[in-house]
Write a structure and sequence with these properties.
Layout: H1 2-23, E1 45-46, E2 52-55, E3 60-63, E4 70-71, E5 76-77, H2 85-98, H3 112-116, E6 140-146, E7 153-158, E8 164-168, E9 178-180
Antiparallel strand pairs: 1-2, 2-3, 3-9, 4-5, 6-7, 7-8
Length: 181
């Protein structure tokens, strides 16, 4: 009987270990989409609970909501505002004037590389960790990066699949402000 109990204890230990390993998998990934491991796991972010997040690998602080949305009890409510590139820059200036996002006044449009750093490669529609950036539209988000070959275009990152494109600055996309920490 002792041998039976010992085997049962080992079996239960293996089941518990397997269940624990399963729980450690990031739940924001979609099976069969992109990479098998998350590029932006939840543990790569600090959550100050003020409508911002800090991306530990880059030390950038991001607005959890797109401009036009409001932070409300761990969720972004409302619709993200679409705007052309000049309006996007003006909106960030207005945000800084107001100090309404966590009291900081040094927000800016992210560079293309910075915005691509929060693209989630294990999911799409949206290609972002929704546990960290809830209610993110699938749409494009402006960057401050201009196309050096064409002064009338700027880069945006589309959060349907996480791809970056340069497009007319007169087009309408969303804005996710960032600041250096």
């Amino acid at each position: 009987m002792n041998a039976f109990l010992a085997r049962a204890a080992i079996f239960l230990a293996l089941l518990t270990l397997n269940a624990t390993a399963s729980l450690a998998v990031d739940r924001h990934c979609q099976e069969g989409v992109g990479e098998s491991d998350p590029a932006t796991p939840a543990d790569a972010f600090e959550l100050p609970r003020d409508g911002t997040v800090i991306h530990s690998p880059t030390q950038l602080q991001w607005a959890q909501c797109a401009l036009g949305q409001s932070w409300s009890r761990d969720f972004c409510t409302g619709q993200a505002t679409s705007m052309d590139w000049d309006q996007a820059n003006e909106a960030v200036v207005a945000l800084n004037r107001s100090g309404e996002l966590a009291g900081y006044t040094d927000w800016r449009l992210p560079s293309r590389t910075e915005l691509e750093s929060i693209v989630e490669t294990c999911r799409e529609a949206p290609a972002i960790n929704e546990n960290i950036f809830p209610n993110t539209p699938w749409a494009g988000f402006w960057t401050r990066s201009l196309d050096t070959g064409d002064p009338e275009t700027a880069w945006f990152v589309g959060f349907y699949g996480g791809l970056a494109f340069d497009y007319s600055r007169d087009s309408s996309y969303r804005v996710r402000p960032v600041r250096d920490r």
